[in-house]
Amino acid sequence: MAIKSTIYKAELQIANMDRHYYADHQLTIARHPSETDERMMVRVAAFALFAQERLEFCKGLSDTDEPDLWQKDLTGAIETWIDVGQPEERRIAKASGRANDVIVIAYAGRTSDIWWQGVRGKVERLRNVTVWSLGEGVAASLGGLAERTMRLQCTVQDGAAWLGSSAADPVPIEWSVLKAPAGA
After folding, report:
1. pTM
2. What's the number of CA atoms in the CB half-sphere (13 Å) around residue 143?
3. Is 96 a domain residue?
4. Which residues span the domain enclosing 122?
């Protein structure tokens, strides 16, 4: 018998002054049995950083044809595809053909640097792909915020971001841009 996902609930308040996006979201997050708190909370942080009205969590680890997050337009076409971790270059290329914008957020520190060197040559040619690498220790700090029921606040201002809860100090979300989309 397969182990089922664990359900987490989050009330997320977002104040993104850079994009003028201010909203409250009620999130239901299914944590796959093989997923860590760190990875799950990086998904939540990605949601907070790129939040829009129709952005939603997908099956992620449970379905190889879906990203961790996506936003579709009213016709069902994929506008934004967000993957967390270190996807294979073929997966990134396939996403690039299916979505208007593809965002990859790597979070494993030194391992992410090695991954990037391996996929860089092919991924850099994809015009609609953005690749970020979270700073060392950010994922672990975000993982410390994980609770079955969470009240989170995310603030983005002047290119800096913080994610915090009522029970813990805000975690600065630091990243470097490994690849920006063409024309950005």
Report:
1. 0.94
2. 12
3. yes
4. 36-145+163-179
